[in-house]
Amino acid sequence: MKRIEANDPVAMTQWGGEQHRKGNYSSAFEHFTRAAELGNVLAHCQLAESYHYGYGVEKDRGKEMYHMEEAAIGGHPDARYNLGWNERKNGNDERAAKHWIIAASQGDDSSMKALIAAYKGGLINKEDLAAALRAHQAA
User: Fold this and answer.
1) What 3-state DSSP class applies to 112?
2) Which residue, 99, 77, 60, 71, is CA-closest to 13?
3) pTM over cut 0.70
4) Angle, CA 24 vertex, CA 19 and CA 30 arms, to 5°
5) Residue 124 CA from chain centroid, whole number
6) Which of 35, 48, 68, 119 could disulfide-pair with 9, CB 3.0 to 4.6 Å?
């Protein structure tokens, strides 16, 4: 609790995660919010999930996407992967591939698999897939 009182966003996010696992979604949401305000990208990802499923808050697609984008901008590969799927569902295949390429270059295996499927479906070319694979392997 000392680290939380000292406004440590990592401690707040960890405590929020513990509260979430216990089913105390309101407390989890409060701690994730405080941590996100301090710039913690994992907290933004957790808030996106909270808004998606309605954990401790009403479901809100707009706020979900806001926090997912903040997490992705901050470098969270899972958030970037999820944004890719959101773009894919909305018919924005080129934007989806760009998100997955960024996440794959951060070492995200799911994004690499999505890119392989995108290549097989004709959504990206062989050169882009090869470049993404090299970046993924280097991560």
Assistant:
1) helix
2) 71
3) yes
4) 75
5) 22
6) 35
